[in-house]
Amino acid sequence: MLEVKKRWRAWLRAIHRDFGYVAVGFTVIYALSGLAINHIKDWDPNFTSTEKTLTIAPIPDDVSDDEAVKRVTDATGTGKPDEVYRAGDEVRLSYASGTQVTAIADTVTVQAREARFFLRVANWLHYNRGKKAWTYVADVYAIMLLYLAISGIFMIKGRLGFRWRGALLISAGIAVPLGYVILSGGPSAHAGQATATAAAPEP
After folding, report:
1. Are 141 and 2 in contact (CB under 8 A)?
2. Contact, 61 vs 104, CB < 8 A?
């Protein structure tokens, strides 16, 4: 009987160890993208934005649209635009990348966006929008996390295990989200606030 218990715990630890290794990459992706998305009100986690101002010779009204675009793109080096808007001395160029170029009189403003390479990809995976295959991968990762959490309870015996220290720490881990829900009023309270805000007249 004792031998069976030792073998059971050995298998538990071996699988826990291997799942832990496999989960490293997934955890880095989900943890970093989770932090980025968590603060989406403070910054754009997918793109960095830059703005620069240039000075050019004013474009006369009698110059054709094509010529006006050429003069602006020659000065900015932004290439052929996807959309062009022109009114008087204003020339506005739009690009599929999100870049906007605005020329008014002798001033050209270039507002550009560049993708944050790792975070944009990680956020795309994290949101899991329209990616059926990744849904199954994410499900497997979720199952692995469940196994790591549950098997971790039984990894160590004695006072440092589940019967004393482990039980206290597990209780603390449960108490934090539970306490927050109780103190904040939970989703119902926040749904009411959102409804009230939406119904309030604009100033």
Report:
1. no
2. no
Q: How far apart are CA 126 and CA 50, in angstroms?
A: 26
Q: In angstroms, rounded to a whole number, what is the distance separating the alpha carbons of residues 88 and 77?
A: 23
Please report, for residues 25, 103, 129, the alpha-carbon distance to residue 120 in angstroms, rounded to integers and kept in the order given.
16, 30, 13
**Sorting pLDDT into bands at 50, 70 and 90, what band is 190?**
low
132 and 187 within one domain: yes
Residue positions counted in the chain? 203
Residues 6+ apart with CB under 8 A from 26: 141, 144
Q: Model pTM greater than 0.70? A: no
Residue 164, pLDDT score: 80
Residue 203 C-beta-side C-alpha neighbours within 13 Å: 1
Strand pairing of 100-104 and 107-115? antiparallel
- Can you give the residue range of the structural domain that contains 127? 2-43+117-195
For 58, the token pair is 């004013």
Count CB atoms within 10 A of the CB of residue 111.
13
One domain for residues 108 and 122: no
Is residue 203 one of the residues assigned to a domain?
A: no
H helix runs in 77-185, sequence order: 117-127, 132-153, 167-184
